[in-house]
Amino acid sequence: MPDNPPNASLLKGQDLNRAANLLREGRLVGIPTETVYGLAANALDEAALKAVFTAKNRPYNDPLIVHIADAERVGEIASEFPDAARRLAEAFWPGPLTLLLPRAAGVPDLVTAGLPAVAIRVPSHPLTLELLRLLEFPVAAPSANPFGYVSPTTAEHVLDQLGDAVAYVLDGGPCTVGVESTIVGFDGPTPVIYRLGGLGVDQIVRVAGRVQVQQQPGEHPVAPGSLASHYAPRTPVVLGAPSLEGRPPETIGALSLNAHYDGLPAENQVQLSRVGDFSEAARNLYSALRYLDGLDLAVIYAELLPETGLGLAINDRLRRAAAARE
Ligand code: TXA
Ligand code: MG
Prior knowledge:
Helix 2 packs across helix 6. Helices cover 28% and strands 18% of the residues. Strand 9 and strand 10 form a beta hairpin. The chain has ten helices and 15 strands. It is of the alpha/beta class. The protein binds threonylcarbamoyladenylate and magnesium ion.
């Protein structure tokens, strides 16, 4: 991984006009959202889109989410906006909800990986909403991390890993949700969740009355962010409470909601939320994985949370982080 470039402080800030102009020139800009930081490019500029895939080392069959300022602009990129989708948008945009809608003509194949649907969301972050309002085009933005690695939740995370690829990072402070958006498609009027995320299943049910959850860990998933091994630190992750046998305690890390493990150094343990609050846990998840990964441990043990509310999305990320990599 590259170290922070020496002029890192010049590469981040809150200059919206600078960010907008760079995007107009086809450059890449890190943008804050409530979920994770995105690596933004003009969604209609094929050269800029290619640069996104190159910077992330991301395969072209993994499509990108398009970010817009408000639901009024859905018609620029989707050919239909069915009532079932509109109701969710009204309830949860701006917010951690991505809708899969039939793509409009003119959306580059690079954005959708040739799929018939385009992924769209209105992120809830004041700086980025302001930026999107300034722009004449929609913005494609995957999470601003190398493909398969832990997602960034601060501007520094983006510079640490993609500092060579971005022209600028709009610094909006730490992300308030901390896990990616929930991706929702439709089977007729029924919402289908393809990626668990910052918007809870229960919240969608409250508005839509029902929901299917259809995560696809296969090789050609509808939402490739559902690849079995994803969101992974370099250090091996093992699910469960730490086992202290066979390894020196200094080489073992532990991550949990709020457990304390006797026998492990305090600095090797991260509690996602001392008071057991799942929102706080989600907010801290990726920083915690990065922190533990930075300790050069032999193994990180991660205890799953109860499977309710945001616990579902957090556990999903922990399971994928623990899945063996090729
Ligand atoms: O919270 C988020 O969604 C963040 C912020 C930056 O908005 N973005 C994000 O993007 O997580 P990314 O690229 O890391 O994950 C997007 C996921 C991928 O798994 C991709 O396969 C899926 O969305 N996706 C994108 N377009 C799709 C499409 N047309 N059909 C199905 N899945 C799609
Ligand atoms: Mg991602």
